[in-house]
Write a structure and sequence with these properties.
six-stranded mixed beta sheet; five-stranded mixed beta sheet; 47% helix; alpha/beta; 28 helices; 19 strands; 669 residues; disordered N terminus
Length: 669
């Protein structure tokens, strides 16, 4: 029985293969595979998994032909089981290792006689598999909102929303149930377990009934909620003539890069850039992008050499397929999800000294000077978004929330302010105004002795009022009906007003991550404090509350600190607030990758919409690119005393934090 248990332990077999105990693993695989095939059938998941492990064993022995045969026979059953989404952790990890092994095998036989003999298109097959094993959290949210947007009547859309919300409830209860069962036996509450079991049973039956009804009315529903891995031909079908898609998949040992043009041949490259090496490079680059800087003089120099190393290893080898494009769509896996590709130089350069701080960065040949850039969480997300119908043209243009008051002192000070904003001023010693968690002294606390924090201690961001008003003006929105700033930027209003008829929704405020404030255990946007509004709310629009919103937006602008962050360490990029807004119902989001300097953020987002107003054919990504270049090339900030230019906005700290995730192809106007 002990030996039988070892033989049927796929995680143990995988460990053997990873430690080059191939012969030993082969014996276990052979016996177990035949047992599974006899008792479970050839297409059962366990049978297919064991055959795939055998493929890994043949790969380690350099028996490429037999390895391809085993992988190609087993992969369809593995993909059909949707393990990347529904499997337990150990099963998902084995699935990931299997897929990555096959991708590596395909990269090794690419261009060889074996590829021709087997009639394989190795890069195309590897492309499809890489998309199958990427993070699924954001893709799932996009698929859910995409399914609702694709249906043709409101009743069916409501039915789909009920199914998706029920699924969320089931998963939340399952998590609680698992935690309850994991407790020591003497600490378990039998009544609570019975109650949870009953709730799960009721919800599961309701969920199954909803799915049956939806599938009758909308047979293609699962195409959105559980899409098949995207192929290169599917991508080409949805690319505009001026676009190219770049997909990067990173493993423990290598990075694989595909560049897919709208017309012409794809390019495929295998790099020795491992996940660890990229993590180190990204971490080093982010020291200058997300510094804990108190003043302008504290912002570190940006390492152009390391940034160019990423470009030359990843994008340059596939340049032939994207060099003629004006718009890039980038799907970046792993640590690259935390870096904006706009900051990569496309050539080496030595910076010259300049009298104006940061002005020498204007000479850098940044990638953003050549192309606009849109990010996608997966290739399937790109296909989903490009398959959706246009939003209702009768929707109102805009609604925006900004400059909330976090305590009564800020409310009193605001009443004395003049309506006209002052020009941006700066000095090397002037504190940076950053949209990040920066606690202010409320008058009765020693700021250096603060050991806890609450909403009322956040610093106000008056620039955000001008930002929201500027966007509203560019979109010709009604300031009285569509702009909610100051005391009107309340959590209760956001949660109770109808947001489903707005094309653009903007929030300009602080974004918070778990632990920023006492008791905060999920990402949130900071809105007016209840001591200002008198409302029975906490002033925090949390991820859970955003998931309950019902939107039908072309895009959501999150002009705040680090809104593109992951939901927890190790999670995929944009899986926090961004994922919640995708689920609520938007085709694109503008998010920030680090705490933003508030004046440059205001100028960047405001100009973006002005460019689209001037050129109604301009895509969202194209408008963002123009706004970035205008900020880089602008004179900069005036010195508060002399009136001379004190610093330029050309350092990527100022212009690079914002990225567009989602669909950038259709203009807003």
């Amino acid at each position: 029985l002990y030996e039988k248990g070892l033989a049927q332990n796929p995680s143990l077999i995988l460990t053997m293969l990873k430690n080059e105990r191939t012969e030993e693993a082969m014996k276990l695989i052979s016996n177990t595979y035949h047992t599974y095939q006899t008792n479970l059938g050839r297409t059962h998941y366990l049978t297919a998994e064991m055959l795939a492990l055998q493929g890994m064993a043949y790969l380690s022995q350099k028996n490429f032909k037999q390895a391809v045969d085993d992988f190609s026979k087993s992969i369809p059953a593995l993909l059909a089981a949707n393990i990347a989404t529904v499997g337990d952790y150990s099963t998902r990890q084995r699935f990931k290792h299997i897929i990555e092994a096959y991708i590596d095998l395909l990269s090794q036989i690419h261009g060889s006689h074996l590829e021709k003999e087997l009639k394989l298109n190795a890069p195309a097959e590897a492309f499809r598999l890489a998309d199958a094993v990427r993070g699924q959290v954001v893709q799932s949210a996009l698929g859910a909102s995409g399914a609702r947007a694709a249906v043709e009547n409101a009743i069916l859309a409501d039915l789909a929303r009920r199914e998706q919300d029920t699924d969320h409830q089931i998963k939340a209860l399952q998590s609680i149930f698992s935690d309850t069962l994991a407790a020591p036996e003497d600490q378990r509450d039998p009544a609570a377990i019975e109650n949870l079991t009953a709730k799960l049973d009721t919800l599961s039956r309701a969920h199954r009934a909803l799915l049956v009804e939806i599938k009758k009315l909308f047979p293609k529903y699962s195409d959105f909620t559980h899409p098949q891995p995207a192929t290169i031909s599917m991508v080409k079908k949805h690319l505009e003539p001026n676009e190219a898609l770049i997909s990067i998949y990173t493993t423990d040992d290598h990075s694989y890069v595909w560049a897919v043009p709208s017309n012409g041949e794809i390019e495929f490259s295998k790099s020795n850039m491992s996940a660890n090496k990229i993590t180190r490079l990204v971490s080093q680059l982010r020291k200058a992008l997300a510094p804990d800087a108190e003043t302008l003089g504290d912002i570190p120099a940006f390492d152009l050499q390391q940034a160019y190393e990423l470009y030359s290893d990843l994008l340059k080898p596939v340049e032939a397929a994207w060099k003629d494009a004006t718009d890039l769509i980038i799907v970046a896996h792993g640590p690259l999800g935390q870096l904006p590709f706009a900051i990569l130089p496309i050539a080496t350069i030595q910076l010259q000294e300049d009298a104006v701080l940061f002005a020498n960065y204007r000479d850098v040949p940044w990638l953003i000077r050549k192309v606009s850039i849109t990010r996608q969480p997966s290739v399937s997300s790109f296909i989903t978004l490009r398959s959706l119908p246009q939003g209702n043209p009768e929707r109102k243009a805009f609604v925006g929330f900004g400059d909330p008051f976090f305590n009564k002192k800020q409310l009193a000070e605001a009443k004395e302010e003049k309506a006209i904003m002052k020009p941006a001023v700066a000095s090397l010693q002037k504190p940076l105004q950053v949209r990040g968690i920066r606690i202010t002294d409320t008058g009765n606390l020693d700021s250096e002795a603060i050991t806890s924090s609450h909403l009322g201690m956040l610093n106000r961001l008056p620039d955000t009022k001008e930002e929201i008003n500027s966007i509203a003006s560019a979109l010709e929105a009604d300031p009285g009906m569509d702009v909610f700033v100051g005391k009107r930027a309340s959590e209760h209003l956001v949660k109770t007003m109808d947001l489903s008829d707005r094309r653009v929704i903007a929030f300009a405020t602080h974004a918070l991550v778990p632990g920023d404030l006492d008791g905060l255990n999920q990402p949130a946007l900071a809105l007016c404090s209840p001591e200002v509004t008198g409302e029975n709310e906490d002033g925090l629009l949390t991820l859970g509350e955003i998931l309950k919103l019902k939107l039908n937006a072309d895009w959501v602008v999150l002009s705040a600190c680090n809104t593109g962050a992951a939901d927890g360490a190790g999670a995929e990029a944009v899986s926090g607030l961004g994922r919640a807004f995708f689920y609520a119902g938007t085709r694109a989001i503008l998010v920030s990758m680090w705490p933003v300097e508030t004046t440059s953020a205001r100028q960047l987002t405001s100009k973006l919409f002005e460019y689209q107003k001037e050129d109604k054919t301009l895509s969202r990504a194209g408008a963002l690119r123009q706004s970035i270049l205008a900020l880089i090339d602008s004179p900069g900030m005036q010195d508060a005393v002399s009136g001379k230019i004190a610093a330029s906005y050309a350092h990527p700290f100022f212009w690079a934090p914002f990225i567009i995730v989602g669909d950038s192809g259709n203009p807003v106007n």
